[in-house]
Amino acid sequence: DTGVSQDPRHKITKRGQNVTFRCDPISEHNRLYWYRQTLGQGPEFLTYFQNEAQLEKSRLLSDRFSAERPKGSFSTLEIQRTEQGDSAMYLCASSTGGKDGYTFGSGTRLTVV
Amino acid sequence: AQRVTQPEKLLSVFKGAPVELKCNYSYSGSPELFWYVQYSRQRLQLLLRHISRESIKGFTADLNKGETSFHLKKPFAQEEDSAMYYCALSDHTASKLTFGTGTRLQVTL
Fold it and tell me: Please, which residues 72-111 of chain A have a Cβ atom closer than 8 Å to chain B?
C-alpha cells in the first residue's frame, strides 16, 4: 500500500463535458474525504464518507457534483456539465480518525477550457 | 462558522533565524488544531496537532484559547523547512478540516 492514490493526475476538458475522478484510499482507512483547492487558497471541504456512507456534503458541492464510495473502498467524484469555475486541484484524503490525521493524495488537477 | 486566518502569504527568513507562522481561528466550541505542510512537488502532510503537544522537525505550536491562536514556531530555520504551511481546524478528530489560505516559508542562506 503506497498511500492514497488519485487518478488521473491531470485532466483537461471542454466546458460542458462530464469528468470523473477516482481515489483509492489507504486500505485500512474507513474515512475518505474530498477537498478542492484553487490557486492561493487552502483546501476546501467538499464531502466525507465513513465506509460507504456519505455523511456530510458542503454547500460547495452543487447538484452537478456527485461522489460515491460504493463498497467502502475507492471513491469517485463526478462533475457534470463542467464550468470554467470548476478548474481546481481536487484532493482526496483518508484516515482512521486516529491521531495520525489525514493522509492526502497527490490530487487531480482539472482544467476546464 | 469555523474560520482559520493565516495573515502572511509569504514569510522569508534567513537560515538560523527564528520562525513564527501565525494562525488565528474562530470557533465557538473546543476545536482541534493542526499544521499541515506541503514541500515542493510533494503531497500535503500532517506536521503536528495540538493535542499531541510534540515537537516535529523542531517545530512546536501552542494552542492559546484566549487569543484563539495556534502559531507555529521554530527557533532556528533550516533550508529544508522551505515549504507551504497550512493551519487547519476541526471540531473533532474524524471531522472535516477547515484550512487557512497558507503561508509560504522561504528560508534563505
Answer: 91, 95, 97-107
Closest CA to B20 of B91, B77, B90: B77
Residue A74 to residue A49: CA distance in whole angstroms: 11
Query: What does the alpha-carbon distance between residue B3 and residue A108 come to, in Å, rounded to a whole number?
Result: 25
B37-85 pLDDT, tens digit each: 999 999 999 999 887 778 889 999 988 989 999 999 999 999 999 999 9
C-alpha dist (Å) from residue A8 to A47, A81, A86: 19, 19, 16
Residue the block writes with cell 476541526: B90
In angstroms, the Cα distances linking A43 to A38, A77, B39, B108 are 8, 16, 15, 27
- Mean residue pLDDT of chain A comes to 93
Chain B residues within an 8 Å CB radius of A31:
94
The three grid cell numbers given for residue A6, joined into one nine-digit string: 488519485
Q: List, for residues A72-109, the tens digit of each pLDDT value.
A: 899 999 999 999 999 999 999 999 877 677 899 999 99
Shortest distance between the Cα of B99 and any Cα of chain A, in A, equals: 5
Residue in A closest to B6 by C-alpha: A42
